[in-house]
Design a protein that fits this description.
Blueprint: E1 23-26, E2 39-45, E3 75-82, E4 97-100, E5 126-133, E6 136-140, H1 155-160, H2 163-203
Antiparallel strand pairs: 1-4, 2-3, 2-5, 5-6
Length: about 230
């Protein structure tokens, strides 16, 4: 069964929809009308693989393994689940998203060909949901629009790539120079004050104290004047 549903990125209000190696999709709620034992897979492919994609190649095969993507496997299948995990209608307040590329411990583990590993390049990528009953595909959605991931900016563009960045560098340099001048003036003032205080104490001598010695004269009674 070919479904008209097209996978889309989650609501922008959630934030972090795309990173350098992951992206976030809305879950396909109320999309599939299949028995509960049918397994629903997410297919991730490079755009060139979409026109020739073969539904009969099931998950876990070398042509659909994450470890071979995109060199020997132009598409891989991951995030398998049943309809029980995509209940309809959506419960109120529940966040119903899928983060593609969130597993890091199985990236090189070839025994986990359905690993939901980090995407190896900025893309773009296209995805769809594909339902299998055993080894037989029974329903699929349309392919999504191309999804591109974020790329890191070179350090040169971050430093002076914008006018206000260059202005901030100039302001920072001027403030640094003014701070150095202020610090030098403060140190000079402290040194000058220290020299002034030290000079007054080194050249001033204590006044000499002269103590005069007095001999005590005994005063004798003069005899009365004789007549």
């Amino acid at each position: 069964e070919m479904l008209q549903y097209k996978p889309v990125l989650a609501s922008p209000t959630l934030g972090g929809l795309t990173t350098a190696s992951t992206f976030v999709l809305e879950q396909p709620r109320c999309v599939f009308n299949v028995p509960n034992n049918v397994v629903i897979w997410l297919v991730v492919a490079v755009p060139s693989a979409v026109p020739t994609f073969n539904n009969s190649l099931g998950p876990g095969t070398p042509e659909r393994s994450f470890q071979g993507f995109p060199d020997t496997a132009p598409a891989y299948m991951t995030l398998n689940t049943t309809l029980l995990n995509y209940p309809c209608p959506k419960p109120p307040g529940e966040i119903t998203v899928l983060r593609v590329g969130s597993e890091t411990n199985c990236t090189k583990n070839e025994t986990r060909p359905t690993c939901n590993g980090p995407l190896p390049a900025p893309g773009p990528y296209r995805v769809k949901f594909l339902a299998f009953n055993g080894s037989e595909p029974v329903a699929e959605t349309a392919w999504s629009d191309p999804i591109s991931l974020r790329t890191a900016q070179p350090p040169s563009s971050i430093a002076v790539g914008r006018e206000h960045s260059a202005g901030m560098v100039a302001i920072t340099a001027i403030l640094s120079i003014l701070f150095a001048i202020l610090l030098a003036a403060l140190v000079a003032a402290l040194l000058f004050e220290g020299d002034a205080c030290g000079g007054s104490s080194s050249f001033s001598k204590p006044e000499a104290v002269t103590v005069q010695r007095y001999n005590t004269h005994h005063v004798y009674d003069q005899p009365a004047a004789r007549l």
